Amino acid sequence: MAFQQEIINWYLSNKRSLPWRDTQDAYIIWLSEIILQQTRVEQGMPYFNRFLEAYPTVLDFAAATETEILKLWQGLGYYSRGRNMLFTARQIMELHDGVFPVRYSDLIRLKGIGEYTAAAISSFSSGEAKAVLDGNVFRVLSRYFGIDTPINSTGGKKQFSELAQSLIHLEDPALYNQAIMEFGALQCKPKSPDCPSCPLQVSCYAKNNNLISVLPVKLRKLTVKTRHINYFICRDGDNILVNKRIYQDIWQHLFDFPNIETTEAASVNDEQFINKVKQNFGKNVTILPLMEVKHLLTHQIIYVQFFALNNYIINFNINAEAKWVSWADFDQLPQPTILTKFINNYFNE
C-alpha cells in the first residue's frame, strides 16, 4: 500500500479546493465530471457554477429544453455532451423516480456515462470501490510501473483497468481516486512533471530509466480532416436568416447561418461556387466577402469564410432549416463559438 498511501499523503497536502469535492451529491458530481471531460478545470469551473445555479437538481435539469442547455453550454465544445446530459436527466426521472443513482451498475446504463464517469460518481458519492481511469491516471500508472502498452489500444485499456482496480484503496476509495487524479493533473503532468519533488521518484520506473517523455505510449491519432465552410449573411432590417444544424456533424442542433461547404477555398471568381450560391439565393444575388477565419477542432481544421448577400431570393427547398429571427432572439440561441466571435468582431465594432 506504499504507492497508494504516498499519493494520498501528497493529495492531502496539495489538493485544490474545488466545489464538487465538498459533496456526496451524485447529481453535482455528475455535473462536474461531464463538464470537465475534454475541458481544463479553469475553463470548466464557470460553466459548472452557471449550470448548478440554473439547474440545482436533476429535476430542474430534466425540465430544461435542449436549446436552453446548449446555450448555457456554448463555448465548451463537444456539444453531444450537453445533449446527452439532458437525455440522462430525463432517464433518471423516468427510471429512478428523479433520484440520481449512486451504484456503478445503475450509472453505467445511463446515456453519456461511460466506465470512468460511472466509477467516479459511484466512488465519490457512495464510496464504491471502483477505480477511476482517466488520462491523468493512465499517465501515473504508465510511468510509475513502466508500462509501454498503448493506453488507447484495446489491450492497453484492459491492462490498465485491471491494474487500477487492483490498486484501489479499499478503506477510502473516493479519497484514493481523487488523489491519483489530482496527482496526475498537478504533479505527474504530461509535460515537465515535477520529478524532483515527487514522493514516488525513488521507485518510479520512468524516472529511473529516463522514459518520462516516452510514457505513456499512445497510438497515432486519426488523420486530421480539412474542411471549407462558407457562411452567408442575409439581413432584413433587425432580422437575420439562421440555420439549425440537424445532421450528425459538428455543432449538431446549434444555430448558424445558411452555408455551402466546398472542397477548396471558395472565391467570388469561381464560377462553380457562384452557381451554387445562385441555386440557393437566386440568379440576381450579389456576394460580398467579409471575413476569413481558421477554426481548429480535435480532428478537423475548418476554414470559414463569411459573405454578405444582397438581392437574394432564398430557396427554402434547399435551405429547409433556415428561418428568420431577430438579432435579440438569435443571441439567445446556442451557436458555434466561431459565429459569436464573428458577430462580436464584425457587427459590434
3D architecture notes:
By secondary structure, the chain is of the alpha+beta class. The chain folds into 2 domains: 2-208, Endonuclease III, domain 1 (Orthogonal Bundle); 225-346, Nucleoside Triphosphate Pyrophosphohydrolase. The chain has 15 helices and 8 strands. The strands form 2 sheets. Strands 5-1-7-6 form a 4-stranded mixed beta sheet, sandwiched between helices. Strands 2, 3, 4 and 8 form a 4-stranded antiparallel beta sheet that branches. A hairpin with a 2-residue loop joins strand 2 and strand 3 (239-244). Helix 1 packs across helix 11 (173-187), helix 8 (115-126) crosses helix 11 (173-187) and helix 9 packs across helix 11. The longest helix has 16 residues, at 80-95. It is elongated, with a radius of gyration of 24 Å. The model has no long low-confidence stretch (mean pLDDT 92). Adenine glycosylase active on G-A mispairs. MutY also corrects error-prone DNA synthesis past GO lesions which are due to the oxidatively damaged form of guanine: 7,8-dihydro-8-oxoguanine (8-oxo-dGTP). It is an enzyme of class 3 (hydrolase). Residues 35-186 form the HhH-GPD domain.
